[in-house]
Amino acid sequence: MNFKIRAATKEDCKEISRMILELAVFEKMPDQVKISHEELERDGFCQNPFFECLVAEVPEEKSKEGFTVVGYAMYYYTYSTWRGRSVFLEDLYVMPEFRGNGIGKGLLSKVAEVGKKKECVRLQLSVLDWNTPARDFYAAQGAQDLTDSEGWHFIRFDNQNLDNLANEAPKD
Amino acid sequence: MANFILRKAEPNDVPDILRLIKELAKFEEMEEKVLLTEKDLLEDGFGDHPFYHCLVAEVPKEQSSEGYTVMAFAMYYFTYDPWIGKLLYLEDFFVMQEFRGLGIGSQILKVLSETAVKTRCSSMHFIVAENNTKSIEFYKRRGAADLSSEEGWRLYEIEKEDLLKMTSK
Prior knowledge:
The complex is a heterodimer.
Chain A: E1 4-7, H1 13-26, H2 37-44, E2 52-57, E3 69-80, E4 84-94, H3 103-117, E5 122-128, H4 132-140, E6 144-145, H5 146-150, E7 152-158, H6 159-167
Parallel strand pairs in A: 4-5
Antiparallel strand pairs in A: 1-2, 2-3, 3-4
Helix pairs in contact in A: 1-2
Chain B: E1 5-8, H1 14-27, H2 38-46, E2 53-58, E3 70-81, E4 85-95, H3 104-118, E5 123-129, H4 133-140, E6 145-146, H5 147-151, E7 153-159, H6 160-167
Parallel strand pairs in B: 4-5
Antiparallel strand pairs in B: 1-2, 2-3, 3-4
């Protein structure tokens, strides 16, 4: 299958937003999606963008519903106090009818290339424990499960808890 | 109660930041894994495109330990969640042992939370090792959720060697 991977433009945000929702549905958490293409346009294409995005396009064929953008990878730069610059792959998604054609691998390789140019020492990502195809896909590229080997857990403070923390007086 | 101030790190704090990074790594029993140098920290935190932001806590000279006045730090940066937008990610957070129990850690967390709210972040995220029970309790007391336990998220990493293999194909 003929496909192209390129940097996303502001105009791609509507398509990216559509696919973000598709991925959230797959991850069984669609009601947790609170932002739309407008926030993506604002946060990804401002002077100091909070993320970067690649899209996969199929020029000739179109998906059942008429889309030409059929996959995306969203990533940003992070920092390790031990080793320095890193890249974090936040989302990687290919529409189901376009899988098995190397698009996922193409997107991941392109993110690796971007990371290499920026002198990043590693790429990290998070994956759900039940998502075996994804875990296998990343393991095939040499990924290590650090939750398993080193016991790392993701922690979150949000909403009321974040506000409470922000308002809290220092304890004696 | 110790008299201390919290402030934004400056370029000449870099030697202290590296010293504290190494102390935290020592506590995590991974001191030899710190490969970062002062030069890296300077370039990456105070150059054209900062990869991180840092807060430091300082005590007056008279209260210092072994001559150091900077005795705590928190390193953070902004990340993005495609479902909720901007997040504040706390990378490292450490108070020197002799200065614990004085409210410095709590104050740092409060200032970070204020920063998160002011900069329109929906949430503050970080990772913690499951055997670090003291830290986990500190965070849970303040309402933190463990997403690995509650939702099944696992941290994966691809090292430079394997990244380079991907780019050469």
